[in-house]
Amino acid sequence: FGYNARDDRYEDLLKAGIIDPTKVSRVALENAASIASMFLTTECVLAEKKSDAPAMPAMPGGGMGGMM
Q1: I need a labelling partner for 9 at 20 to 30 A (CA). Which of 3, 27, 53, 63 fits?
Q2: Rounded to whole angstroms, how far apart are CA atoms 66 and 31?
Q3: According to its UniProt record, which protein family does this protein belong to (predicted)?
């Protein structure tokens, strides 16, 4: 059930011969074009470079100082 813009009324779209509503097709096509243009115009990728610095040393044990 939906809106038939040609006849300006609400009806069963399948019985009226409208298989795919226009708005759904238009939005799908717009989204596909947007994604395709993004892939075509992307020239770089930002990624974090892994550092070779050693890991931080462990924290010293708690307690009173000078006790060994």
Answers
A1: 27
A2: 68
A3: Belongs to the chaperonin (HSP60) family.
